[in-house]
Design goal:
The chain is an alpha+beta fold. It has helices spanning 12-34, 107-167, 173-230, 353-357, and strands at residues 40-44, 50-52, 54-58, 61-77, 82-87, 94-95, 100-105, 233-235, 240-245, 252-253, 258-275, 287-292, 295-309, 312-319, 332-338, 343-349, 361-365, 371-376, 378-382, 386-391, 398-400, 412-416. It has 4 helices and 22 strands.
Length: 420
């Protein structure tokens, strides 16, 4: 008789199938929990630029453009107005100190001189007449004093004689009193005459002093006007080259109007325009370098012009050593203007990545060089070649410094090709 054999629930096939399903489920869970969910993008290695972070000397500087100008320039302004009567030189001529350049004609100034000379002559005549009057008055008063002194001595003798006679009762009382009164009158008259003489002398002295001072002022004013007359001939204040002469013969020039300039060509300096962003970091004494004819020349800032025009301010730089041979006025120079001292820092080469990231993050390659992951960094100073790395990178690490415009903030780049 057949026996019913019970059917097994967990066969080998079922066990294998269940184990496979469990393993797959475990793989899915692990992948979800611990897997790499970052976005990826495949990039060809030959289309990117890979740079190495390294430690080295860093010099912060900015590239600026300057124009070569003479070491000294003097502008010619008309000290007096007038009509151009004669031109002695033309623009481009070499001049020495005091050489005449042009002559102006000014009839109003000439008439002014004539009027002042007439006033001066009138004042001089008045002063002379006043002195003559003072001398005549002095002689007249002295003559009066001489006469008074004579009358006083004569009357004094009579008075003394009458005193003797009146004591002996040889004359009348009236005769004695008349003699005494006459003597007293002459004494008082002399006192008043002397007082009048002193006051008149003091007045005349002050009057003459005032006239002399007025005459001196008029003479100084006349000398100044004559000096202005001499200024109608414009002369070179320094030796150099007359690089500009604006007026033409017959042209009217106003006082203070610019008529030309003279450049001293025995030396040159460079006038540099700097972005206003750096105005607080630029001071006299800072140095810069530029290349010319295969050699490097050093310059130093001598003067800073604080006025900002169209977002830029200017500085004057002079050569610290010998000037380059062959340099010419008006020539353009490209200068590396230093902003700080040389120091040892962690360096990152400049590249197009900065336009996308602003220096806040960068793609860093792993050791095999087959992937590059985004990493936050912090940059400090910079120059046209390098950035100073403050945080986020170490020496020897490799980074992608080319542009990131096509990556759309992807977390990881998978490099295809040789990135070694």
């Amino acid at each position: 008789m057949d026996r019913i054999i019970p059917k097994k629930r967990w066969t080998i096939r079922r066990i294998i199938a269940a184990a496979g399903a469990g393993g797959f489920l475990l793989f899915v869970v692990v992948t979800i929990l611990f897997g790499d969910h970052s976005s990826k993008l495949n990039v060809k290695s030959e289309r990117i630029t890979i740079s190495t972070v390294q430690r080295g000397p860093f010099q912060e500087y900015i590239p600026v453009t300057g124009t070569v100008i003479p070491i000294k320039t003097v502008f010619l302004d008309a000290m007096e107005g007038g009509r151009v009567e004669m031109l002695f030189l033309e623009a481009g001529a070499d001049v020495g100190i005091g050489d005449p350049i042009l002559k102006l004609e000014n009839t109003d100034l000439l008439l002014n001189i004539l009027y002042r000379e007439a006033d001066l002559a009138e004042q001089s005549n008045y002063l002379r007449n006043t002195r003559l009057d003072m001398e005549r008055n002095r002689l007249s008063l002295e003559s009066q004093l001489v006469e008074l002194n004579y009358q006083i001595r004569k009357q004094e003798r009579n008075y003394n004689q009458f005193k003797t006679l009146i004591d002996k009762e040889l004359i009348s009382r009236k005769e004695f009193e008349d003699a005494r009164d006459e003597y007293d009158y002459l004494i008082r008259k002399r006192v008043l005459t002397l007082e009048s003489y002193e006051k008149d002398s003091l007045f005349r002295t002050n009057q003459i002093r005032s006239l002399e001072m007025s005459l001196e002022r008029m003479q100084g004013s006349l000398a100044l006007v004559k000096k202005n007359m001499e200024n109608l001939t414009v002369r070179a204040p320094i030796s150099g080259q007359l690089t500009s002469l604006i007026p033409e013969i017959g042209e009217s020039i106003a006082r203070g109007e610019r008529i030309g300039q003279i450049d001293q060509l025995d030396g040159f300096k460079v006038r540099v325009a700097v972005d206003e962003h750096y105005i607080a970091r630029i001071n006299p004494g800072q140095q810069g370098e530029f290349d010319f004819n295969g050699s490097t020349y050093t310059m130093i800032i001598k003067k800073v012009f604080p006025e900002v025009i169209e977002g830029r301010f200017e500085v004057d730089m002079e050569f610290t050593g010998h000037e380059p041979e062959g340099i010419r006025r008006g020539q353009t120079t490209h200068i590396r203007l230093e902003l700080g001292d040389l120091s040892e820092v962690l360096l990152l080469p400049r590249g197009g990545f900065y336009q996308k990231t602003g220096g806040q993050w960068i793609y860093v390659l792993n050791k095999p060089g087959d992937t590059a992951e985004k990493r936050n960094i912090r940059l400090g100073r910079q120059n046209p070649l390098m950035f100073e790395v403050l945080e986020g990178l170490e020496a020897g690490e490799r980074v992608i410094t080319s542009g990131y415009e096509n990556y759309n903030d992807i977390d990881k780049l998978v490099l295809k090709g040789d990135a070694q």
